[in-house]
Amino acid sequence: MYRLKEIANKVYYVGVNDRQKALFENMWPLPYGVSYNSYLIADEKTVLVDTVDACYADVFLKKIEDALGGRPLDYLVVNHMEPDHAGSIRLLRQAYPEVQIIGNKRTFDMLEGYHGITTGLVEVKEGDTLEIGHHKLAFYLAPMVHWPEVMVTYDQTDKILFSADAFGTYGTLDGGILDTDLDLDHFWDEMRRYYANIVGKYGSPVQKALQKLSGLNIQTICSTHGPVWTKHIPEVVKIYDELSRYEGQEGVVVIYGSMYGNTEQMAEAIASSLSAHGVKHIVMHNVSKSHSSYILKDIFKYKALIIGCPTYCNQLYPEVDSLLQKIELREVKNRLFGYFGSFSWAGAAVKRLAAFGEKMNWTIVGEPVEQKQGLKPDKYEACWALGKAMAEQIHNEQSK
Ligand code: FEO
User: Cys staple from 308: which of 54, 135, 254, 340, with CB 3.0 to 4.6 Å?
Assistant: First the structure.
């Protein structure tokens, strides 16, 4: 029944789109949905690469049945054990009891833990290969891109990389599967948001994986989420390289919490000054309105950030406090940082933001501004000076 897309010689897309889930990992909004990609190589031997979220197992198994056309399924390659990809393994094994499962030592530990499967396993190590007819698969370990058991599979014949989460993005595949068949406009920022939310902490392992893969001739990237990349591989690799090196673009993210608008006025003054002093890319986020996934995306995208908030119960404003924890968790490096805050009777926010900037080992830019109650002319000027200092720092860095 299914007219499955043959994305390369005998390689069929058998993944699914999820437009039902509101929150990925039960945390991150999915305005464009998400796809769980799986690929069936119907060669002399038949090989399935990864499965899909168990919620879609029914349609997934029907697609596999169609792709196989009555043939047995010989192998399942498990590149990643997170349940958005491994969730259907138990049902797949029930449907194809003879399927041999290919993974590494760590894969099998998780396979037993999640699915109780301990038999019919083929363990592979770094660089091992498997000939399946026209295609010849090689396996490379990519630990912590995004979990410790992650590996990637490379088809040496047609130069296809099955990359697990790497080079993935939020967003469903609306009709097309290949990047050349899709409107990509929203995918670029969704790729950054996916990276910042999901993979953000693992910059160093991503860099190691990119180095390892740089020796391969890659013509097609089959990630577990989002488009199959062909024409746009250079852009995709550039984004992942930039993000994993924590190399922000020229621009400033102004992030603030504000209960009654006084701190917000400080943020507005700083942003106006940034613009007046030549900064083109300025993004402002009210932490109580912007979901943290979007704020994190912009923090990964841009080189500089300025954060401000009121003092609340002698602490940071809780929404800002929560954001700082998420930034710290991701070990965001090499940022230019300015900060400001307010209080009604006893100040704590500015002091705590200073401690945060120091802990992150960021470059502190300008003089922090602390205001008591409503915004006064001298504090407005201090905000202006903070914006100016940040703009100058950015221009200095760009001209180096
Ligand atoms: Fe898409 Fe780490 O799973």
Answer: 340
